[in-house]
Structure formats: C-alpha cells, structure tokens
Amino acid sequence: MFWPFVLALCVTTLSARSVDSLLQDLGKGMESIHCEGTVSAMGEQNIQGVPFSAVIANRDSFNITMNGPFGITAAKLYATRDSFVFVNYLMQQVFDGRNDAPTVATAMPFGITITDLFALFKGQVPGDVSRFSVHSVRNDSTVLYVSKHDGLTEFVLVDTVRTTLRQYQSKDEHGVLKVNVTYADFHMVDDHPFSYAVDVAVDDKRQTMAFRMTSAHVNHPITEPLAIGIPSSFKRTSFR
Fold first, then answer.
1. If you average pLDDT over every residue of the chain, what do you get?
2. Sign of the four-CA dihedral 189, 193, 194, 195
3. Got the DSSP string for 184-213?
4. Are the C-beta atoms of residues 232 and 87 closer than 8 Å to each other?
5. Distance of alpha carbon 231 from alpha carbon 114, whole angstroms
6. Strands (DSSP E) along 150-191, which ranges?
7. How far apart are CA 102 and CA 92, in angstroms?
8. How far apart are CA 174 and CA 170, in angstroms?
9. Burial of 222 by CB count in 10 Å (0-12 exposed, 13-18 middle, 19+ buried)?
10. 142/161 Cα distance (integer angstroms)
11. pLDDT per residue as tens digits for the range 13-49
12. pTM for this model (two decimals)
C-alpha cells in the first residue's frame, strides 16, 4: 500500500510542476491574427449575428470592426496596450482614453476592460500570470489554476495537449460572477490552434456575447492600417 501511494504522489507532483509554464506559453508564436465572423449579444445590448472582423498585430495593438445592415460600418475599436479609441458610427459617438480608466468597461459593448479584452481575444490570461497557482491536474489533460487577491477569485482552465485556454473566470468576494470566457471548436490555423467559438458572460451573466469565427489566419502580413480617425462632429467622451 505504501509504494503505490508514493508513486501516485510523485506522479501528481511531477505533473503539477511540469505545467507551471503553460500560462506563459498560451498563444506563443502567434504574432498576428486576422479573423472574421459574427457576434451575438443578449442583455443590456441585444444584437444577433452581426458581422465583425478583427486584426491583432505584434501583440500590442488590435482593431475590431463591426458591420451593420447593407455592409455599412457600425463601430470600430482600435486599442494599444495603453490607450483606445472606440467609434460608434450609428450613434455618432466616440470614446477614447486610457485602458486602465476605472469606468471604461461601462462604455464598451463588451462589458470588460480593453486590456482584458486584448488578452482574452488572443486566448491568453489577462495580467501577470505569476499570480496563479496550480489547483488541480485533471484526467482529461486539463489543468485548473486559481488566484485569490483583493477580494477577487480567478480561475483558468488550460488544455495541456494543445496548450490552449479553455476557460477564464473571475468572481467577486461574494462569489458573484464578474467575467466568464469559454473557448471551443478549435481549428488548426497556420499550424496554431485557434478557437472558432468564444463565449463571454459578464456582470453575473447580465450581458453575454457569442463570437463565432468563419475564417482566421495567423502570422499573415498586416497591410491595412489599424488606427482609426475620429470624426470631429461626433460627440466625444474621454476616460483618463
């Protein structure tokens, strides 16, 4: 009885140690991403099957374009690691400022901060991954990580075979869901696993969004400009 127990303990410990670098390896080698698809939302904002396209460049900037009826541009978001510009062409509104502004998430159609959106759209964990520790190594080749700090509990589920993020979740000190993002329907895109189904729920599921990709490319040259102009006649709100 003693030796099987020791052997099982050693295997479990070795498995836990071998996955410590997984969070840092998520999205490794994906320098740029082009993808297209549709987005649907339910909650305070309701849309169904709106076409969108996204370009993520060099790990430090991205552009998301949402289209309206008859191919018109409904909204555009351009962001770097520090700042963003969001233009709602239908409402003739502009939001811009710093990503870390306390109230910026309330102005965005996604209900989460620009910085978190930037990471999660690439299938990476927001912020410094060193705050996480291994909670459990599961039999289905996934590893659950947990972080607890400042009244916030975060969970990260990683597929160790594909080295992909399967789920990110955060809850407040009362256990109320703040953000939940799940990834499914992975395709090999230019030798990289890429999720074609990303579901987002925020604010105790009061707002949900479902991204469904129809095409994607990884590490293809980016020829189009990502920055967007700000129409001078639009109402402007800045976050600092």
1. 86
2. positive
3. EEEEEETTEEEEEEEEEEETTTTEEEEEEE
4. no
5. 21
6. 152-159, 164-171, 177-189
7. 23
8. 11
9. middle
10. 8
11. 434 444 468 898 998 889 899 999 999 989 887 889 9
12. 0.84
46 three-class SS: coil
Q: What is the pLDDT of residue 59?
A: 62
* Rounded distance between C-alpha atoms, residue 227 and residue 163, angstroms: 31
Could you identify the residue written with the tokens 């836990």? 16
Tokens of 129: 């991954």
Residue 121 has pLDDT above 90, yes or no: no
Span 165-222, pLDDT tens digits? 999 999 999 999 999 999 999 999 999 999 999 999 988 998 899 999 999 999 999 9
Largest CA-CA distance found in the chain, in angstroms, rounded: 77
Contacts of 216 (CB under 8 A, 6+ apart): 33, 34, 35, 36, 187, 189, 194, 196
